[in-house]
Write a structure and sequence with these properties.
467 residues, alpha/beta, UDP-n-acetylglucosamine1-carboxyvinyl-transferase, Chain, 27 strands, disordered C terminus, binds uridine-diphosphate-N-acetylglucosamine, binds phosphoenolpyruvate, EC 2.5.1.7, UDP_GlcNAc_COvinyl_MurA, UDP-N-acetylglucosamine 1-carboxyvinyltransferase
Length: 467
């Protein structure tokens, strides 16, 4: 089995470069399907398993792609399939983001329900509600969804019940080629939404207000491939900031954008970590004992749920008791059991975890239960007494470029041992369960959205309904 072995106790120093953002590049690559002519050239594309997955999804749909030196070129003169297959879509949540572009471009899509980290039920009702408001007819099958539109999608006024990142992105992409203007109210405001809007606009789109709660998209007739640089990964940056603080280190996180990390920076400062922001990165120094703080995850600009487990690792080595409250995903404390194996004192009470800091951590055999949990365990291992063995690395490889090499370059005693293959771990609930969750979620909005659930859904032919 592939594993990372960390011997704790080394102080991290030096410079680490942040890679392009996973959660920005995935929707951007999905949006490249919208361009009927010209190549999209996307720079700073991180070498991650999730990027390879979205590349395969694009190729399945007819895209020609190349990937060299962190640059991916995509050209999609013709969409050759409207079906996004289960084997790829189950691997990660973001592959569901091809639904909006396919609906907008060819008016049809058949897509499996998405996978991704199993951190909650993760319904997709808000995505579907948006597409239906734009005129799509949606049918749920056994583990998949079919949608079609008669003619072109139409601009609509859409209010999201939750400020969902994925739903905002999917609707924004679909609306870019719709007839008329779409407004998304209670839109997600994450930096990755702004990056996607900038790319769509570079392609000739008209998206305004990204980064605020109200986005306005004027649909255009066609979009052309464009060149775009992906923003640096704020979650990867935040993880190295915590790794530095964890070890009493002095690390310059090159490329980190302070504006994207405001809630993480404020919490670190409250704890006593020194932060120096500059144009090309953030220096993180920890020279004194850290104080416990309470943390509550919220949609941006609140404290990001994707940093919750790494922050919990840091609270384990601070003085005092902290309360960590997770409000975004209902099942995102799975790392707590793994921390317990390292002698951590944490009690979970519903959506909150009470963390007693200052109890010495000890090395143990632990397993990454999801992507960020894996990173958090590695952070904790940097400070633990003795050796920690982290498995479940298929999660970590989805979102961190060479975490072993980057930490080793900062002085960590860390190595990776490749195994013959990972034990099969389900990344998401079985399709039937996901359909159930989706239908349950869909029922919440039954008055406005009618769903047909059928065992078999008629196979539709691929043909653009408008061009
Ligand atoms: C690839 C990607 O960008 N993933 C990120 C994205 O995931 P993702 O886009 O899946 O997360 P969402 O913002 O959609 O989810 C936020 C909340 O809304 C709920 N919800 C979502 C959609 C929907 O139709 N109905 C609904 O109820 C979810 O269950 C969750 O409780 O944002 C999350 C929240 O910042 C991050 O943790 C993920 O790293
Ligand atoms: C939860 C995450 O990813 P995904 O939405 O792809 O599961 C993440 O990046 O932490």
């Amino acid at each position: 089995m592939t594993k990372i072995i960390v011997r704790g106790g080394q102080r991290l120093t030096g410079t680490v470069r942040v890679s392009g953002a996973k959660n920005a590049v995935l929707p951007i690559l999905a949006a490249s399907l919208l361009a009927t002519e010209g190549d999209s050239v996307i720079c700073d594309v991180p070498l991650l398993d999730d990027v390879m997955t979205i590349q395969s999804v694009l190729q399945t749909l007819g895209a020609q792609t190349t990937y060299n030196n962190e640059t991916m070129s995509v050209s999609v003169p013709i969409i050759t399939s409207y079906e996004a297959p289960y084997e790829l879509i189950r691997k990660m949540r973001a592959s569901f983001l091809v639904m909006g572009p396919l609906l907008a471009r060819i008016g049809k899509v058949r897509i499996s329900l998405p996978g991704g980290c199993a951190i909650g039920t993760r319904p997709i009702d808000q995505h579907l509600k948006g597409f239906e408001a734009m005129g799509a007819e949606i049918t749920l099958g056994q583990g998949f969804i079919e949608a079609s539109v008669n003619g072109r999608l139409k601009g609509a006024k859409i209010y999201l019940d939750v400020a969902s990142v994925g739903a905002t992105e999917n609707i924004m992409m679909a609306a870019s080629l719709a007839h008329g203007t779409t407004t998304i109210e209670n839109a997600a405001r994450e930096p990755e939404i702004v990056d996607l809007a900038n790319y769509i606009n570079a392609m000739g789109g008209k998206v305004r207000g990204a980064g605020t709660g109200m986005i306005r998209i004027e649909g255009v007739e066609r979009l052309k491939g464009a060149r775009h640089n992906v923003i640096p990964d704020r979650v990867e940056a935040g993880t190295y900031m915590i790794a530095s603080a964890m070890t009493g280190g002095d690390v310059f996180v090159e490329g980190a954008i302070a504006d994207h990390l405001t809630p993480v920076i404020s919490k670190l400062q409250e704890m006593g970590v020194e932060i120096a922001e500059s144009d090309n990165g953030i220096r993180v120094t920890a020279t004194r004992p850290l104080k416990a703080v309470d943390v509550k995850t919220l949609p941006h600009p609140g404290f990001p749920t994707d940093m919750q487990s790494q922050m919990m690792a840091l609270l384990l080595v601070s003085e005092g008791t902290s309360v960590v409250t997770e409000t975004v995903f209902e099942n995102r404390f799975m790392h707590v059991e793994e921390f317990h194996k390292m002698n951590a004192n944490i009690k979970v009470d519903g959506r909150s975890a009470i963390v007693t800091g200052g109890v010495p951590l000890t090395g143990a055999k632990v397993c990454a239960t999801d992507l960020r949990a894996g990173a958090a365990l590695i952070c904790a291992a940097l400070r633990a007494d003795g050796e920690t063995e982290v498995t479940g690395l298929h999660h970590v490889d989805r979102g961190y470029v060479d975490i072993t090499g980057k930490l080793a370059s900062l002085g960590a005693d860390i190595r990776r041992i490749e195994g013959d293959g990972e034990a099969a771990v389900e990344e998401s609930p079985a399709p039937a369960a996901v359909v159930h969750q989706t239908v349950v979620a869909a029922k919440a909005s039954e008055s406005t959205v009618a769903y047909k659930r059928e065992k078999e859904v008629a196979v539709l032919k691929v043909q653009p309904t408008w061009a």
